[in-house]
């Protein structure tokens, strides 16, 4: 009959134990994945800081020999790269430190 309630299947203690084991294993994999993700993100941040320092030093050297990058272009490179890194930091932070109860907590 359509619309009649159907009783859910009984949950056995063994099924609960298997579910807990699977959840524990999944959380362990997520933690391992987050450590790898954080390590990669740190490498990207370090590369960006290095690029920015080298770029600023190059601009100073080019200014001394009177062939600098024009100011608007210099500012555009620094600001756009900084914006990209801030966006990446936001994404990494959201993944590494999810808020309690969010739907992407254990994705």
Q: What's a quick, concise take on this entry?
A:
This protein is mostly helical and 107 residues long. The chain has helices spanning 13-64, 71-96.
Features:
107 residues; mainly alpha; 2 helices; 0% strand; elongated
Describe the protein's architecture and organization.
- With 107 residues, this protein is mostly helical.
- Helices cover 73% and strands 0% of the residues.
- The chain has helices at residues 13-64, 71-96.
- Helix 1 (13-64) runs antiparallel to helix 2.
N-C termini distance: 39 Å
Mean pLDDT: 81
DSSP summary: helix tally: 2
> What value does the Rg take, in angstroms?
25 Å
Quantity of strands, as a count: 0
Backbone shape: elongated
Helix content: over 70%
Characterize the main sheet: none
Classify the beta-strand content into a percent band.
Answer: under 5%
Low-confidence stretches: none
Name the structural class.
mainly alpha
SSE order, as H and E?
HH
């Amino acid at each position: 009959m359509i619309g009649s309630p159907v009783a859910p299947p009984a949950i056995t203690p063994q099924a609960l134990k298997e579910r807990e084991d699977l959840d524990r294993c999944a959380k362990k994999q997520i933690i391992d994945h987050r450590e790898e993700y954080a390590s990669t993100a740190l490498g990207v941040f370090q590369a960006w800081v290095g690029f920015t320092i080298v770029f600023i030093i190059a601009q100073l050297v080019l200014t001394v020999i009177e062939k600098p990058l024009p100011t608007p272009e210099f500012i555009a490179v620094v600001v756009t790269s900084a914006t990209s890194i801030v966006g990446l930091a936001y994404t990494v932070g959201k993944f590494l430190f999810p808020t309690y109860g969010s739907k992407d907590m254990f994705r």
